[in-house]
# Entry
Amino acid sequence: MAAPKKGRRPAGAQGRPGRTLVLFLIAMVALAGGMFASGHNTPRLGIDLAGGTSITLRAKAEPGQEKAINKNNMDTAVSIMNRRVNGLGVSEAEVQTQGDRNIIVNIPKGTNSEQARQQVGTTAKLYFRPVLTVAAGTPAKPQPSGSPSPTASKSAGKNGDKNKPSSTPSTKPSAKSTPQGRALTDALKADGKPSPKTTPGLPATTPKPGTTPGATPPVPPTGDAAAVAKLQKQFEGLDCSTKESRAKAAFGSKATDTIAACDQTGEAKYILGPAEIEGTDVKKAKAVIDQQRGMWIVQMDFTGKGSKKFQSITGKLSKQQSPQNQFAIALDNQVVSAPSVSQTLSGSAEISGSFNQRSANDLANVLSYGALPLSFEEQSVTTVTAALGADQLHAGLIAGAIGLALVILYLVLYYRGLALVALLSLVVSAVLTYVIMALLGPAINFALNLPAVCGAIVAIGITADSFIVYFERIRDEIREGRTLRPAVERAWPRARRTIMVSDFVSFLAAAVLFIVTVGKVQGFAFTLGLTTLLDIVVVFLFTKPVMTLLARKQFFAGGHPWSGLDPQRLGAKPPLRRARRTSAAPTDPKEA
# Structure
């Protein structure tokens, strides 16, 4: 008879449950320590629990484009707004259509909620336009008769003419009136200095012979005489001192139009030619800090087609005189910057100037996530309080506490001592869920809302179901006549398969629900999927090692009536014994 192999353990045996349990508890402590170290000790709350702002935006079509308001463009606008808000790190924001013209944006109260409100409806139409004319942002006031020119200066010459005006007056604003930024291409950075004809950020204009210093420069001919005269009149009367006037300056214009526009600060106004490059030609944009200059800049990378366009326009402008050798970066028909060009350029570009981190990120965000196909105006802005959500959360927590109490009562009455294992496992699962939710807030902008709380409450039943499956398998083995220690190990492979299949079905349902739904229902699906994964982790790395250790204790191994594993109460069979094979006695005397 062959001797049994030594060192072979039964299927499902766990050699070192204590080590597994210690490593698991160390991992839990590390996660909790990371939560406290990050400063985010509580999960982020959604708008229904934390309050926030609800904005109603109404689409408006530009003149002659009323048909642009359609389902396709509205859906595109919703998608872009979602990406913008998420790009700012705003958690649990909701963007959805209402009717055929309105979009509802719900922004939870948080660090970037006000910033998101400012950006969510921004059209963000980006054009690169050649500069034709530039002047101060406010119309020149008429001067009294006989008064000297405001830009003239007195100087003493050799012939004693003390009142002779300067021969080279300048119409450029003072250094304090520099617009927000200037664009520098890679080639301009290599040059290391701005064009001598321009002040960084705003080009200077040298009047032509015969013009009055400080007067509005004429519009170069760009079409028929009537259109030029109309544009000249509009340009002369354009006042860029208010936000409203800057927004209305070129409203309704097309990319192919020659327009009069203001810069974003209102300190300069421009005549801009038809757009040579559009925002769709920008591949991506990001805000970075220039370490050499110690300032925030926005870097833009062009698409292949956009790079060719950029090379073409800079090649044309480099042959022109100031200010026609400049191009304006116009965002929503307001000039962000207007650099001069002295050579043909290609590749990426950057916008720099008086940016701070927030303004640089704002600009990079709207450039990266596209231009809205429609213009929107705010219909209403409502502040949502957390009072109603708090009442609902309170009611939900009471319902969850009642459900948990009933589960515990059932476990204690039916499983007795085993209920301690189930309770410890539920506590561990709850702690892990709380810590991970708190960490996911700053990591992926997860926010806890009421449906998510419902998902966590439903998960109590899923987790308890896994314990019940394992306990019943152990009891089945004891009913077959096995002692507790082998029963725990033999029951585990069968229970493990059942638990895995059950949790896989729950996780699959949560994943499908998360994919096909939007808004708050996704919070329910996400929490349900998360707690299902944690159930597997807890059962494998905590519940099973704890049961292996408890099986060595006399209270459970001896089948105490309050252990929940009493063989008599379970109707156990007599202990299993191996049948010994005995040779039959010979019946034939001759054979003896």
In short: Confidence is low (pLDDT under 50) at residues 145-215. The first strand starts at residue 52 and ends at 60.
